[in-house]
């Protein structure tokens, strides 16, 4: 059987409810909701079914509250450091300068080419998606002009752009006229 857990707080049920209602962060709001319902006399199993969590998580939140008070129930995701950048600031600047020049194989820079450049500098494989991410991080893109068909008629295209109704007639007239 699960260990019985109770909310050890000087706050009344109404004060916990007020904290729950005034919380702006959704995670902290849920934590206050759990504490309020526990103070009201609900069991962890009841609270879990009401809020969509497990009874174990409800007990964890109550234990955090009992141990650390309000600091225990804040949204800890905001304090997580996250993974460090793969490239140092100097390497990012070097990449930015490299992107000003055409790539070694010609063409345009894209995610796989940036990933290959990074792999060469880092001495390990780099996923092409990460190359694209670094392109975006540096404010770059692979935007290019739309390809033109070699046999396209510029006059007909311009006539079509004028207006939808008149453009079609003009385009037909241009395409029927002998050159």
TrEMBL record:
Listed InterPro entries: Homeodomain-like_sf, Winged_HTH_dom
Region annotation (Disordered) ranges: 146-179
TM region(s), chain numbering: none
Domain Winged helix-turn helix: 105-163
Compositionally skewed regions (Basic residues) per UniProt: 162-171
A UniProt-annotated Pfam family: HTH_23
Protein name (Swiss-Prot/TrEMBL): Transposase
């Amino acid at each position: 059987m699960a260990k019985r857990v109770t909310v050890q707080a000087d706050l009344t049920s109404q004060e916990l409810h007020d904290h729950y209602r005034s919380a702006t962060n959704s995670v902290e709001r849920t934590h206050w909701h759990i504490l309020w319902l526990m103070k009201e006399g609900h069991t962890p199993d009841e609270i879990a079914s009401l809020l969509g969590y497990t009874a174990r998580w409800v007990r964890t939140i109550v234990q955090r509250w009992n141990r650390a008070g309000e600091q225990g129930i804040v949204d800890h995701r905001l304090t997580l450091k996250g993974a460090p950048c793969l490239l140092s600031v100097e390497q990012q600047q070097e990449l930015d300068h490299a992107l000003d020049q055409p790539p070694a194989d010609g063409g345009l820079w894209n995610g796989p080419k940036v990933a290959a450049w990074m792999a060469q500098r880092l001495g390990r494989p780099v996923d092409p998606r990460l190359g694209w991410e670094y392109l975006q991080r540096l404010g770059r893109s692979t935007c290019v002009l739309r390809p033109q068909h070699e046999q396209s008629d510029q006059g007909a295209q311009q006539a079509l752009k004028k207006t939808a109704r008149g453009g079609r007639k003009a385009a037909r007239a241009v395409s029927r006229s002998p050159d």
